[in-house]
TrEMBL record:
This is Aminotransferase class V-fold PLP-dependent enzyme. One of its GO terms (molecular function) is transaminase activity. Keywords: Aminotransferase, Antibiotic biosynthesis, Pyridoxal phosphate, Transferase. Residues 29-391 form the Aminotransferase class V domain. InterPro entries: Aminotrans_V_dom (IPR000192), Aminotrans_V_PyrdxlP_BS (IPR020578), PyrdxlP-dep_Trfase (IPR015424), PyrdxlP-dep_Trfase_major (IPR015421), PyrdxlP-dep_Trfase_small (IPR015422). The lineage of its organism: Bacteria, Bacillati, Actinomycetota, Actinomycetes, Pseudonocardiales. It comes from Amycolatopsis acidiphila. Belongs to the class-V pyridoxal-phosphate-dependent aminotransferase family. Csd subfamily.
Amino acid sequence: ALDPVRTCLPATLNTQVPLVTGETVEYANLDHAASAPCLAAVRDAVDEFLPWYASVHRGAGFASQVSTKVYERTRDVLRRFVDARAGDTVIFTRNTTDALNLLARSVPRHTSVVVFDTEHHAALLPWRGPNVQRIPTPRTRLAAVSAVDSALAATPVGPRLVVLTGASNVTGELLPVREIAAVARRHGARIAVDAAQLAPHRAVSLRELDVDYVVLSGHKLYAPFGAGALVGRSDWLRAAQPYLAGGGATKLVTERDVVWNVGPERHEAGSPNTVGVHALGVACEQLARNWAAVAEHEHELLTRLRRGLAGVPGLAELRLFDDDGDRVGTVSFTVEGYEPGWLAAVLSAEYGIGVRDGAFCAHIATRRLTGGQALRVSLGLGTTAGHVDRLVLALRQVVARGPRWAYDRVAGRWAP
Ligand code: PMP
């Protein structure tokens, strides 16, 4: 059985970080939703590949052949990872933001788009124009499904697309993707799922969810930065103008004309991030082999975390929905009387804990739920029960002490 913690790169687990007191402590990374540490297997695969990366597709040399093989093999890995349909295309991008912008540029003209206003900016902002309906996220999942139904009913004739996150990067709550996909189908609409936060925690199946597109980021899936993907229906992508103009996207260029490729290369102009793509593929394979262990690890720690947070005076957890539903290991909260940025700084300086504070690139969601900002704790494979306990203890201590303390370097202690 997989030991989730050992699966992570050992170096990222035992990193000692300095505290304001001058001591050091093992870093507790509770910010996996931003970027997750590299898996040991990913590091090993990248190490092995580094001497061989070269230009893909166009080189005759051995290294180019190896690189092309690795790069194209990863398309199949991604296809399997999201259980794509025959005929779906896999386009490598820099990240989720890039993939969603590519999709936004590739939908037919006059496509009506329906999107909840609490989405991450990457899913909210690429869609512009009069045919975009941003709908307020209702307080229950059932109402969310009806809201999409009503919004689609109000769209004019023509192509339609629903854009939806699989799991909220603010609250960790899962959205009712399957139910919304069924509504989309009834209206002849397509649906794109932003799986940036879902894919690191749950198996995502295009077929089972009956969705048209899925996008994800390698750096949230325990691979390094720089590679992501858009997977889904080929027709719109094949017909769209190339996302980037340049080498690799073309079949033939003459003095007068350009013939663009119709496959995934159409949107992958320029030398691709072969190393990043390989890392992404290996991370996906690791996760796909170990979903049961990943889920169990996360479930245990999330239960521990939420039980601990419930005992912190003045702490209020953020929720998009009033109904209880499935969720991933991401929890945001406010603590009455405490500024989230200050709390995050104290957790780092005094306890060696890394969390995120602010509005999480989902300003509308965070402002609606808090009136301002929040603190976010997100668990992952590298998280231990000790990290969770340290956070809960830290919050209890800080709250017991009061909000106006600062570290007095001369006296070597915290003082009001
Ligand atoms: N969507 C969601 C739900 C996210 O959490 C994020 C990252 N915070 C993104 C999109 C954007 O991902 P990236 O920064 O990798 O493009």
